[in-house]
Structures are given as C-alpha cells and as structure tokens.
Specification:
about 110 residues, YaeB-like fold, 3 helices, about 35% helix, HigB-2, Addiction module antitoxin
C-alpha cells in the first residue's frame, strides 16, 4: 500500500518529537504493517469514512499503550492510506469526528 501523510499528521509528529524523542521509532512498526497491506487498530464507526484508530506504546514515557499515542488513518482506496493525525493520549483524551473529517477534506 502507498502511505500518505496529512499536513496535520506531519505537524503533530514534529511537535511531539520535541517531547518524545523516540516517537518515530515507536510508530515505524505500524507504518510497516500498513505498507504490507494490514489494517491494524479498530475501525471508527459513524464517520462515513473507513477510519481506523491504532494504539501505540510510548517508549519515551513508561506508560504502555493506554498512555501512548493514537494514530488515526483513512483507507482512501484499497491501495492508498492517509495518516490523518497522531496524538499523545496523555495530552489529548479524544478527537472529534468533525475534526477528523475536516483534516481529510483539507487533503
């Protein structure tokens, strides 16, 4: 699969890397899984889009998956994946459907 990054995703990674230096290493296995055609995570219902949320362990802070990162990705086609956003669960509890849809529309 082809992986694309939204502007919001790039901004968030750039911001989070200052606080969590190992974030790129932490998210790499998920990106590799997506490239190989797997769809990790849980589907987000009620959005009208094929969106998934993946929980990722934060190795920069010993909190496990529950206090780790969340990656939201969108299956645009059978072969194209858009990484919509990433956030630290310790900084943000959740993201609204309207926020997700506005990011997707920007791309």
């Amino acid at each position: 699969m082809a992986i694309y990054y939204s502007a919001a995703f790039k901004r968030q990674v750039k911001r989070l890397v200052q606080r969590y230096p190992k974030i790129r290493d932490d998210i790499q296995p998920t990106i590799h899984a997506l490239e190989s055609g797997k769809t990790p995570g849980n589907r987000i219902q009620g959005t009208g889009c094929v969106l998934y949320k993946v929980r990722i362990k934060n190795t920069s802070a010993a909190r496990g998956k529950s206090g780790g990162y969340r990656i939201i990705y969108y299956l645009q086609t059978a072969n194209d994946v858009l990484l919509v956003t990433i956030y630290s669960k310790s900084e943000q509890s959740d993201i609204t459907t309207s926020e997700l849809l506005s990011i997707i529309k920007e791309e």
